[in-house]
Amino acid sequence: MPRNPRIDVVGYYHVINRGINRDNIFLCDDDKCKFLDILSAAKKNYHFTVHSFCIMDNHYHLLIETQRNNLSLLMRYVNSQYACYFNKKMQRSGHLWQGRFKSWYVTSDNYLWLLIRYIEMNPVVAKMCPVGGEYPFSSSYCLLHGAQGELLHSSLLAEKDLLAWLVPLKQDELNELRQFEKSKLVKHDDDYILCTKLPLPDYFCSADFKMQRNWSIYRAISDGYKQSEIATLLHLSTAAVSRIAAIERAKHDLYHKIKQKGLLWSYDHDTEYDVQKSQLLVETVLKYSSLEDVEMVFRLYGHRFVKMVWQGRLLNDLRFKRLNYFLARVFFNMDVEANYFAEHKGSRADKLRLLAG
Question: String of b and e for 300-325 (b: at least 16 CB within 10 Å)?
C-alpha cells in the first residue's frame, strides 16, 4: 500500500526520528553538537525557525516553523548529512535512521505548548537530568544559560517562567497530546485544519445504514477509533471489522490510483472516495483501466454489483461494443456473439439523436 502523502505547508511541525533498531546514534557530546551544527547550517538554505529541540541518545525531537513548503527537503538534508558524518566516524555503512522521519502539523496553541513541555521534559522522564532546563542538548538549557548561538532564535520559550513552567505532563495532558497527534487533518484552501472527531455512534446513524456501514467502519478507523470499539458497537468480531476496513481501504486506494492516472479528469484534485462514488469507480475502471484493475473491482465489489453497473452504464453504449463483448464472455459467462452488441439498442445514441432533433 502506498504511504500517505506528507503534509508540507508553511507552519509549525513536531519532527522526530530514531536510530535504526532504536540503537544509539548520538554516542557522545560531540555527536550531538555535530547534529546541532548541521541543523544550524540548514537554516541558511531552507529558511526555518527552531522553537524547541532535544537531542537524546537514540532519537531527536524538533519543533520547527517553516517559511516555505520544504519540510521534506530540509529534513532529508539534515538526516543525510548526519548519517554521512556518523558512518564515516564509525567506519560503518548502511542505513542509520529507523525510517523516514515522522512529523505532525501543529494545529493549535494548546497543542503547541503541550508539545514544547513534552520535548523539553524528555530528559527528565528518561532520568538523564533531575529538572527541566538542565539537559545541555535542549533548547530550554540554551535559553537559561545564554547559549542559544545561531540555532535558536525563538521568542516562544522566553514568554514563560521556565523554571516554574517546565514540569512533566500529567496523564490527562499526555492523553490530550496523543489525541492531537491522532487527529485527522483536512485541506482547506492552502492550509490544513483539524477535523473534529464525531462520537462513534454518529458514524452509523445514516438512514441507509446497510449501504453505508462498511464505509463508515473505514472512516471511523481512519479518524482514530479502535477496531475493538467498533466491533463492540456493531456486535461484530474484531476480525470482521478488520476485514471490512481492509476492503474499504483498497477501494479508497483504487479510486486514488484511477484519479492519478487522469481517468477522473472532471473531478476536483482534492476529492475523496466515498460510497456514493462506487458506481462511478466501477464504470471508469471497466471502460478505461487495466485488466488488473478490472479484476480488482470484481474482488472488491462482487460479481453482482459490477454486473449491475455494467448493465446500467455500458451495455447500451455502442462505443464500447468490443469491450462489452469481452466483459460478457470473460467475466459474466454470457454465451453471446459479437453481433449481439452490434445490434443492441444504443440508448445513449438515441438520446443524442432526440436532443439533436
Answer: bbeeeebbebbeebbbbbeebbebbb
Contacts 24+ apart (CB under 8 A), 221-227: 221/245, 222/184, 223/184, 223/195, 223/197, 223/198, 224/179, 224/182, 224/183, 224/184, 224/197, 225/200
Q: How far apart are CA 326 and CA 323, in angstroms?
A: 5
Domains of the chain: 11-193 (3.30.70.1290), 197-256 (no CATH), 265-356 (no CATH)
pLDDT score, position 248: 92
Model confidence pLDDT, tens digit, residues 33-44: 999 999 999 988
Identity of residue 338 = A
Ranges of the chain with pLDDT below 50: 1-3, 347-349, 351-354, 357
Q: Supply 184's cell numbers.
A: 485527522
Closest CA to 228 of 193, 200, 191: 200
At 60, which amino acid appears?
Y
Backbone angles phi, psi at 18, to 5 degrees: -120, 160
**CA dist 316 → 220, 324, 340 (Å):** 39, 9, 11
Contact 220, 203 (CB under 8 A): yes
- The predicted model scores a pTM of 0.56
